[in-house]
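User: I'm putting together notes for a lab meeting next week and I want to include a structural view of one of the chains we've been expressing. I don't have a solved structure, so I'd like a prediction I can at least talk through. The sequence is below, exactly as it appears in our construct file.
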Amino acid sequence: MNTSNHYDVAIIGAGMSGLAAGIRLAHFGKKVCIFERHNATGGLNSFYSIGGRKFDVGLHALTNFVRPGVKGTPLTKLLRQLRIDRAEFGLCEQKQSRVAFGPNGETSLRFTNDFAVFEDEVATQFPKEIDGFRALVAAVKTYDDVSLEVAPISARTVVRTHIKDALLEDMLFCPVMYYGSAQEHDMEFGQFVIMFKALFLEGFARPFDGVRVILRVLLEKYRQAGGERRMKCGVRKILAREGRATALLLDSGEEITATHVISSIGAPETERLIGVATDAAPLEAGRLSFVETISILKCQPAALGWGSDTIVFFNDSARFDYACPTNALDTRSGVICLPNNFDYGPDRHLAEGIFRVTCLARYDQWAPLAEESYQAQKIRCFDDVQRSARRFLPAVSDAALTEATITTDMFTPRTITKFTGHIGGAIYGAQVKHRQGRTPLENVYLCGTDQGFLGIIGAMLSGISMANFHILQKNS
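Assistant: Thanks for the context. Below is the predicted structure for the 476-residue chain, given as structure tokens.
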């Protein structure tokens, strides 16, 4: 490793956006180093091992999937800018997914990577709304969601100009919020557009071996381009003078300098590192966090009757309430992911069944618990989450599921903060996004969660865009 302590660009955090920014900059000859406090890359989209078995976290599916030959989309832009052959990701398409509302999913909208399927479902379930739905889709297609200058507007307000049925409105918001919104109840329309395109107009796919494939490709591209990476090497403070970062103070006490700094750890988290007084109020961390249960099965989900759905977004209440719960968790709504139900090809399937369920959770109901109480709450909540989710799948008896289950695990808001540093376990960061990635220091920029591009592909494009906008274009 090069031991020189000055870099053209120092990147804080080895998540998807930080890695993508590093690759892009290294391709153009910049001397780059990524500093990561933990021993694993990926940030919110990584994996961990227990008993020799690897568990994905974060990645349910790679959104923005398009088939080969489709141009002008986020996926194709990403592959081009990072010089990745799409075959390196080995993406396998979803079979089908659903949005299921009602106490037991009585109203359901099925969708695949063919948008016509979703449009037909809306026409069948909500015939009076189909013209408004098509008008909304037209508005989504023409909206400039990648502009760094656009003024924020309410997505609920825009959608309601086209959709009058509250049930359909909520069914459209549930997936896009669960897969990207840091805002409670509503979201900025540009972010709604990003996620609507990513989920419905484009689609879901997954590498056979999950998130590890994507991380391996990114790490290899970064290494080949000459980038440096320092793991278990966090940044304690950004030292500043006269409105510019002058050095990074590492956890070890070492200081390094860089002409530019890109932070992928979030806006409030970055502001804490800067620690400079400004006229503006301190940035507020997001309130939205989650729990996720993971069950490893000795059979394919199809053997339990769960053989068609890849992802199910569910809600059992009259209205979809996307907000920080008042209690430890809210099982009224959530996301079911069955990774086995991607189309991996004939005679190719995951060695074990996987059943994942995500629900909203409240950080301050988890963080202060003593270890014994924390573990007891995990056990109680695990059962509550799974019991709620199973209402939206074909019925399987408790005894049959128990017999099929090899092992289980669960992560909580406390886990998220421990391994990512996100304040309050906020998966999608702060409610306010910074599209141009600016911070109080003129040479420190944000990418990732709080810059505002969403999803796995969006995170990587955020890193690329900020590298281009603040460094490469200005130096060209």
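A couple of points you could mention at the meeting. Residues 371-389 form the longest helix (19 residues). Residues 242 and 441 are 9 Å apart (CA to CA).

User: Perfect, that's what I needed.
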